[in-house]
Amino acid sequence: MDKIWDVIVVGSGNAALCAALAARAEGSSVLVVEKAPRAMAGGNTQYTAGAMRFAYNGIDDLMPLLADLTDPRLEVTDFGSYTTQRFSDDLLGFNDGRPLSPEQQILIDQSLETMQWLGHQGVKFEPIYSRQSFLKDGRHVFWGGLTLAAAEEGVGLFEAELAALEEKGGEIRFEQAVTGLLVKDGCVTGVTVRNSTGEQVLHARAVILACGGFEASEELRAKYIGPDWAKAKVRGTPHNTGDGLRMAFELGAEMYGFYEGCHATPMDLHMKDYGNLDIPHGERKNYRKISYFLGIMINADAVRFVDEGRDFRNYTYAQFGRAVLEQPGHFAWQIFDAKVDDLLYAEYRFHDAHYVQADTLEDLIPKLEGVNPAGARSTIEAYNQAVMDDVAFDPTIKDGKGTRGLELPKSNWAQKLDTGPFKAYPVTGGITFTYGGVKLGQEGQILRPDGSAIDGLFACGEMVGGVFYNGYPGGSGLTSGAVFGRIAGRGAAAQAKGA
Ligand SMILES: Cc1cc2nc3c(=O)[nH]c(=O)nc-3n(C[C@H](O)[C@H](O)[C@H](O)COP(=O)(O)OP(=O)(O)OC[C@H]3O[C@@H](n4cnc5c(N)ncnc54)[C@H](O)[C@@H]3O)c2cc1C
C-alpha cells in the first residue's frame, strides 16, 4: 500500500513552508512538492527583499524579532509605531471605495502574532535602514510603516523556513510538478506529479495549494489583466503559471478577488524576461527602478503620465509598473539631476543598470531613445517652471513641495531639473504577482460559489483572492503568505486528524 501523507503542500515558497510548519506543529506528516529544482525552489519568495509589513505598537514589539541586538544604530533609531488602524487605512487606500475585505481584516489582525510565530520558527529580522529610513538630525527615522525584513532577505527567509521544516521532520521533494488532484467520494485524496521518471500518484488526507498566481503565464496575463500584459517582464520565478488555480477551478472553486489587478513595478527596460537568480541575493532587486519620486517620468510622446510624488514610494511603486506598461511602446524614461544622485536607491548604481548621461539637458534629450525631443524639452521646461521654490525639500516626510499650474501635478519632492550631470533610465513594467485567486473558508479550505468547501483542499499565498485590489502597501505579500499559510496548515492538519 502506498504511503498516505496527512498533508501534501504544493509549492515551496513562504506560504507553502508556513503551511507545512503549521501542519507539522499539529503532528501531521507533511510532504512538500515543488516544481522547480532545488536552486530555484522557494518561488518568488527567493527573489524578494524579505520585507514584511505588520502592525506593531513600538520598539518593544520589534526587539524580540531582531537578529542583531548589538547594532549601535538601534540607540539612535525612531521606529515609531504602525497601528492596525494605519495598516487598515493603507489597504483601504487601494480599495477604490470597497470596505476592508474579510481577508484584509485577517491579514491585519494576525500580522504581529504571525511575525512572532515566525520568530519562534527561527526566522530572524533586520531593520530596513537603507530603503525605509532617512537620517534626520543624527537619528534614523522610519517613514513608511515597513520596518523589518528577514535577515539575508527572501533567500534567508526561505532557507530558515526550510531548515525549520526539515528539523521538525517535514519532507520536501524538488522537480515534482503537480499536474492534477485525486478525488474520491468528493474529497481530495492526493495529487499527481510529473517528474523525471514520468507521472506519479501521491496520497494525502489533505492537500494545500500554495503554488503562486498566474504572473508567469503570458496567456493568463493577457486573458485576465489585459493584452498589454503579454509583454510584461516577470520579476520573479517562471514557475508560477496558474497551475493551482486551474486545478481548483476544475473542482468547482469560486474565482474570487481582483483578477484584472496585479503588483507591477517600473523595471529596467533591458532586464531579462524573468528574475535572475544567478546574481547574489542582495542584487536581485536591482532591476527595479523606483526612485521616480525624486525626478520625473516621461513616455514616448514626451509627456508625464503619473504624479511621481503622489505619496511615499511604498504606496505607489506597485501601481506605477502598470502605468509604465500601458504607455505607448510599453516604456518610459526616468530623469534625474545631480542634486538627487546621492538619494537614488542603490539599484541605480547597479553594474547592470542601463542609463544615459549628459552634462546638460540639451545634450541629454537626444539620448532618450524613442522620445520626441522637442516634446521632451517643453515638458521639462514646463515642469521646471511649475516647481514651488518657496517650500523646502524633505524626503523624510510628504513635504508638499509640489508643482503649481500643471494639469498633472507632482505633489511632493518636486525639485527643478537644473543641475548637471543629468541621468535618464529607460524603464518598463514588470509584473510581481497577481491579485485574483480563490475564496477561502475560515480554516483555509477552498470554497465553491455556493459557499461549500471542497473537502480536503486548502490554499494560501498568492492564490488567496480578496487580499489586494487596486494596489499594495509594500511588504504585505510575504506577511499575507505567512498568515494564510499558517491558517491553511492548521486547517489541513485538523482535516487530516478527522479524515
Ligand atoms: C522581485 C520580487 C520582490 C518582492 N519583494 C517582496 C518583499 O520584499 N516583500 C513582500 O512582502 N513581498 C515581496 N514580493 C512578493 C512576494 O514574493 C510574494 O507575495 C510571495 O513570495 C508569494 O509567496 P507564495 O508562497 O504564495 O509564492 P511563491 O513564493 O512564488 O511560491 C510558489 C511556489 O509554487 C511552485 N509551483 C508553481 N506551480 C507548481 C506546481 N504545479 N507544482 C509544484 N510546485 C509549483 C513555484 O515553483 C514556487 O516555488 C516580491 C516579489 C518579487 C517577484
Automatic annotation (TrEMBL):
<dbReference type="InterPro" id="IPR050315">
    <property type="entry name" value="FAD-oxidoreductase_2"/>
</dbReference>
<keyword id="KW-0274">FAD</keyword>
<protein>
    <submittedName>
        <fullName>FAD-binding dehydrogenase</fullName>
    </submittedName>
</protein>
<dbReference type="InterPro" id="IPR003953">
    <property type="entry name" value="FAD-dep_OxRdtase_2_FAD-bd"/>
</dbReference>
<dbReference type="InterPro" id="IPR036188">
    <property type="entry name" value="FAD/NAD-bd_sf"/>
</dbReference>
<keyword id="KW-0285">Flavoprotein</keyword>
<dbReference type="Pfam" id="PF00890">
    <property type="entry name" value="FAD_binding_2"/>
</dbReference>
<dbReference type="GO" id="GO:0016491">
    <property type="term" value="F:oxidoreductase activity"/>
</dbReference>
<dbReference type="InterPro" id="IPR027477">
    <property type="entry name" value="Succ_DH/fumarate_Rdtase_cat_sf"/>
</dbReference>
<feature type="domain" description="FAD-dependent oxidoreductase 2 FAD-binding">
    <location>
        <begin position="6"/>
        <end position="476"/>
    </location>
</feature>
<keyword id="KW-0614">Plasmid</keyword>
<keyword id="KW-0560">Oxidoreductase</keyword>
